Amino acid sequence: MLKRFWLWLGRLLGRLIATLAVLGLLGWGLGSLYYAWKFSGPVSTEEQIPAGEAELTRSIIEDAVRVVEQHRDNTRVLRDAHAKAHGCVRAEVSVASELPQTLRQGVFQEPGKTWQAWVRFSNGNAYPQFDRARDARGMAIKLLDVPGQPLMTGPGGQSQQDFVMFNNTAFFVRDVAEYKSNFAAQADGKKVLAFFPSWDPRTWEVRHLLIALQTLSPAPESPVQTTYNSIAPFKFGPHNIKYRVIPATGSCPGYQAQEQNRDLPNFLRNALYQQLSLDRVPACFELQVQRQNPEHYMPIEDPSVEWDESISPFETVASIKVAAQDFDSTEQNRFCDDLSFNPWHALPEHRPIGGINRLRKAVYEAVSAYRHERNAAR
Ligand code: HEM
Q1: 109 within 8 A of 348, measured Cβ to Cβ
Q2: For residues 231 and 170, is the Cβ–Cβ distance under 8 A?
Q3: Residue 338 CB: number of other CB atoms within 10 A?
Q4: Which residue numbers delimit the Catalase core domain (predicted)?
Q5: CA 59 to chain centre
Q6: Quick check: helix, strand or coil at residue 15?
Q7: % of the chain residues with pLDDT over 70
């Protein structure tokens, strides 16, 4: 009797697993077909600004300032995002000496030219948490003494060219409207549910949830051992591009990073300090651009879609050298905190494009101004 029961249960489970596998495969097949249809070119090479974007942006600024105040906790007022720095380091950005004519744009006009720069490495969270927490890791580069009239000047009125990236390849929302509703839901304590705004399955953003989960990744061995992406698109003279910064181990002396104690709160700063200040070994990167091919699905208004590298490969336009140096002093850390990076600190040739970048223009400026004002008053 018992034996027959087990056999029956075994058959039932077997059928259940087979049915689930078939359903899974069917779902995967249908999903792939749907995305192949939805994500097919051609796409526009121009920006398309939806109605109501400016109004949504204003209310996002108010939310952002509220977050800054929430995380203050009797300290200086920190950034609303990427609050924790692993260090600001000096770097040299050299334009590739054999750059094709069509890529000689803006600050990359003169092959071989070297720009002095600041680079700030960060964790993505608004709260300066332990480095072992899953998070995005940021890299922001500021080229100094850039001639020409930028779209927006830095706080001191200086002319700079900034590149602001983090180490995932896609953004977890499509546009300003989705950013607003997702941010509001997150502020209400909803995490996963922020991607399911209603009972209507058409509003579910499963793909964006997966991107968000992927963005919150374990820390790399060191801030100089991961690839950072612009994620959002930019102009590059006549081209529309995305850019990225990738470690270039071949250009620097070989370096085997020491394993860090991941229980220490700031082990990413420790790794940077170990390499640059104790072992005195430089770190090297390449700055690369990926041109939009509008015949394929490489949209401007949706940074949740990665542009396919097999269709449009990245091309190196400059090398970045972070020389051995001492960077971890109270003065330099304070200076670093006071810097403002903004994708709109840019020459017109490198103008940020797309909804998320339009949103960033107003938000970065407002949050930076707010925190500088509050810190000056302390
Ligand atoms: C493509 C998408 C994005 C990337 C790659 C990105 C990356 C970064 C990075 C690396 C920083 C730190 C810069 C530094 O070291 O000072 C930063 C700061 C910041 N981000 Fe983003 N971000 C993105 C989108 C957004 C969006 C959509 C918002 C909000 C609307 C936002 C709000 C901010 C704010 C307020 C700061 C601090 C600005 C300051 O106080 O100086 N970011 N972001």
Answers
A1: no
A2: yes
A3: 15
A4: 70-335
A5: 22
A6: helix
A7: 98
Measured from the Cα of 179, ligand 1's closest atom is: 27
Q: Where are the domains of the chain?
A: 53-376
Amino acid of residue 349: E
Cα three-residue angle 165-374-156, rounded to 5 degrees? 60
Tell me how far the alpha carbon of residue 43 lies from the centroid of ligand 1, in angstroms: 26
Residue that the structure tokens 């770097």 belong to: 91
Return the exposure string of 265-284: e unless at least 16 CB atoms fall within 10 Å of the residue's CB, then b: ebbbbbbbbbbbbeeebbbb
How many A from CA of 167 to the centre of ligand 1? 13
> Which residues are within 8 A (CB) of 250 and not within 5 positions of it... i.e. 6 or more apart?
none
Amino acid at 350: H
CA atoms of 79 and 339, how far apart (whole Å): 10
Atom 31 of ligand 1, residue of closest alpha carbon: 360
- In the three-class reduction of DSSP (H, G, I as helix; E, B as strand; rest coil), residue 212 is classed as helix
Residue 343: closest CA among 206, 152, 125, 94: 152
Q: List all residues 6 or more positions away from 162 whose beta carbon is below 8 Å from its beta carbon.
A: 140, 141, 142, 143, 341, 342, 343, 345, 346
211-231 pLDDT tens trace: 999 999 999 999 999 999 999
Ligand 1 centre distance from Cα of residue 67 (Å): 13
Of 223, 266, 260, 267, nearest to 245 (Cα)? 223
* Tokens coding 147: 């001639």
Q: 53-376 has which CATH code? A: 2.40.180.10
Element (H, E) at 331: helix 330-338
